[in-house]
Amino acid sequence: MDALKKLSCVFLLFLLFLSSALTANAGALDKILADGELRHLAIPYARFNTGDGDGLDIELMQGFAAHLGVKYRYVETGWSAAFEDLLGVQVKPNGDAIEYGEVVPIRGDVLASGITKLEWREQVIAYSDSTFPSAVWLIARPDLPQSPIKASGDLQTDMQRTRDKLTPQTRLLSKPRTCLDASLYKLDGLALIEYSSKIDVNEVAPAVIQGVTDTALLDVPDALIALEKWAGQIKVLGPISGLQEMGVVFRQEDNALREAFNAYFRELVRTGRYQQMVDRYYPNIRQHFPEFFAALAASAVQ
Amino acid sequence: MFQRSLLGKFWLFFLSAVVIIYTALLIGLSVQSQRSSYDAALETASNEFDAQVRVLDYEYHQLSDHLYQLSELNAINVYYANLMLGMSYRYGLSDSLFNISTDIREVLLKHDLGSHVRAIEFVDAVGGYRQNIRLVESAGQCGRKFSTVTTRELFFIGDAICLQVPVIYKQLSRGVLHVELSASIFDISSFSGSGHYYLLDPAGGYWQWDQTGRRWLATDQGPPLSNDNFLFSAELTSGGFGMLRSLPSNELISFTQTTEFIIALSGLALLVWIAGYKVVRYREQNLLLNAEVAQERQHIEKLSQANKRLESEMTRREALEQQLSYRAHHDMLTGLPNREQAIACIDEAIARAQPSRNLLAVVFCDLDRFKQVNDTLGHDAGDSLITNAAERLQAVVGKNDMVARFGGDEFLLLVESCDSVHAVELLCQRLIGVFQQPFHLMEHEFTVTCSMGVALFPRDSANSAELIKQADTALYRAKEDGRAAWRFYQPALDMQLQSRLNLEQKLLSKEWDDHLCLMYQPIVHAQTGRVEAIEALVRWRDEDGLIIGPDQFIPIAEDLGLIGEIGEWVLRRVVRDNRWFANLGITSFVNISPLQFVWKTPLLELIRQISQEEGVAIHGLGLEVTESSLVRNVDEVKFTLDQLARDGMHLAIDDFGTGYSSLSYLKRFPFNRIKIDKSFVRDICDDPGDLELVRAIIAMARAMNLNVIAEGVETTSQLGVLRELSCDYVQGYFYSRPLVLEEMIAFCEEQNEMMPA
What we know:
The complex is a heterodimer. Chain A is of the alpha/beta class. Helices cover 40% and strands 21% of the residues of chain A. In chain A, the strands form 5 sheets. Chain A has a 5-stranded mixed beta sheet. In chain A, a hairpin with a 2-residue loop joins β3 (89-94) and β4 (97-103). In chain A, α9 (255-271) packs across α12 (290-301). The longest helix of chain A is centred in the first third of the chain and has 23 residues, at 2-24. The termini of chain A are far apart. Chain B is α+β, with helices and mostly antiparallel strands. The longest helix of chain B has 71 residues, at 259-329. Chain B is rod-shaped, with a radius of gyration of 70 Å. The interface between A and B is medium-sized, with 22 and 21 residues.
């Protein structure tokens, strides 16, 4: 039965590839150029997409469309539908495997909205060069007895110290299918994990403040903003993950389009304009991840 | 003199006192003014310095207000909130710390404080973290230095001014902001006024302003304290700083405000007093010398003025001499050479022509009818005519020829440009021609011709006087030949004319008593033979005894205008002689020229005057008047004759029958005798016409109750006919030729004795 399921999955994947190849191989880039429009799939998230028409990724894609000489079109989506809107088929990770669902209309040409590079995702989509650094911290209410860890200077030690702060009674908010999914960091059993798909990623910090949960996972870019925005109302207990990277998501077959973006992005970095955009939306991120941005600049020059 | 000297000394003393008081007042006022202006300058400089420091202080407070607001930044509150939550520096706190620097930068940029703030260091006194914000690349990290001085708000570190701003969180001091300010915060380069500026910090340190580098430099000591400097101080309200301005006194006060100036002024006044004293002394000593100098100067001035007058007089005399010389040699009316100059020129011309015997022509030129113009239009017209005539003559003759005015209407031409007699004739012809054109005088048009006589050198003479005389002779010939003509001198033909000229010259000498003499011829009653009257006849007796009759010299005298004088001489002599004849009952007749009626002394007045002067009754006198005398000035002549007749004078019309023989004259004028001209008597015996004419005259005279006198009776026959015709009186050689006075008196006495009444 399992073998049959696997076979059917492979077949579906073949069909998906075939259909995608038939449509995309014609050249997504050529189609975009022919249509004169770049459809940008975006999820309101932190300052990558504020939902008010601006954000780091919004500005990045607008610049890319202008670079291609086509019109920019914003297509809002959500964390649950983001990938199927790009791929034209429902996808869902299931352990190490991917489960495909129904075929749905393709709504966009590119997905960019602070999408962290995760292994399961790379099975179905292709990322551009890394555009932004990230990590996942464990945040808590100020009155929680657990105090923040003392940095040891070693990430793994710090991560372990952080995990040690969790108790089975500690409530931990997890966002499945996102980078804040507790399962990605093997936290099951360490805490009382509360999966909630109703709470938006942007509402994680307020949920902690409001006492909906004791702790929560929060990516660093979002955490830095939350610390500034709700100073004294949340505290960072410590790191859960190491360095993570974000990138712009393409269909795997849209190599020409991805390469076009990578070339555009490298030019943006080389000229320093990208760094200015980053400082505008995340003023202290570069000083927090100096090695990432140094490497980014170095690769752009090469 | 003594009073003047006393007065002078008084004024001298008075003026000296005025000068002394004036200079003393001047010095006193200067001292007072100096003090006032000195105080004012100090006050002004002090006020100015205070005002500038206040402005500086105000600007600093503006800045410090902004800097103090930095301590209230939200980022700092966020930082301390996260710090209080125990967050690690690595995970969250470093980002908050970084946000502090970001926000501080934004605030500084927003308030444009970048030019004043070089760097800021946030020092967390709780966690021990620091955040250094460098705004200027060259700014140092002042935080490490601040750690040693934390008690003062504002202080110097090197050449930087540093401000400490405390950071308060939840009412407690949690840290500090160290602000490194650039020197521009206390930049006094815009301060007006010179001098040196110092900053004095509460710890007693000094910083001196370096204007070149526009910064404060630490110095070991403060401004120099001496009398040569003024020191102004002002407090900065923040940080306890004081500011000093050291100003050299010579930059604040001018020389006129210094003591040296007062000393110099006093010295000057002293010099003035000494000089005044010396002047007075020398004045007295030099008074005499000055007087002598003044006298000498006056003398020199007088001499100078005399010299000027002398020079002026000399100039005037030279001009006068030149004028006199000119007048002596020129005619004033025409500007032509006069007689003397003309003669001299002729002499010179003869001298020049003598060696080569070149031809010279002396042309005597006389205007015809000039006298008529002069008499008719007056002397001004005559002068104008002379002037115009001179211009015409000059226009014709050659450049080297001379035209001179010889007198009256006479011109003399000296012609040197003609080399032949024919050329002279052509010149004369041209001269005649230019006078054919009429002259315009006094709005009248006259044609005045000219007559010319020419004498030639060397043909006629080599002497200027002779040449002139010969030319004059030739001129008379031209005039006699009808005028408007020229004649050359011809010696053989002009003897008679020469004699006339000689006579004219003698007449013009007016020596009447030497040359004039009276002859008397008796007028005898035709029937009784008694002398009833005598006719005075005037004669000219020449030096050589030659007697010239009136028919020769009277016309000449009339031409020369001398007839009046001659007539008066004759009249006076006749009246005087009449005393002899009056005793014999004989009337003395005298001939009157027509011109005597219009002479300057009227005839009536003249006769009355002479008869009165000579004491002779007029009724013993008689006048013989020719018919021509009655033609002109009829009314005046009639009046004269009427008056004379009334006075008892006998009036006879002379030469009756030769002229108009107008009966109207006889009727109109009060004549009582008619004298029949001798030309009718001469042939009365042989010419029936004369006889009948004489008869008619006598008959007419009878009818008009007039007596008749027949002249020129020389023979018995003539006397017989006249007696037969009942002629009243006869006159002629038959009885007597004209006799001198004595002879006539004797003749009358003898004749009348022989012929009883």
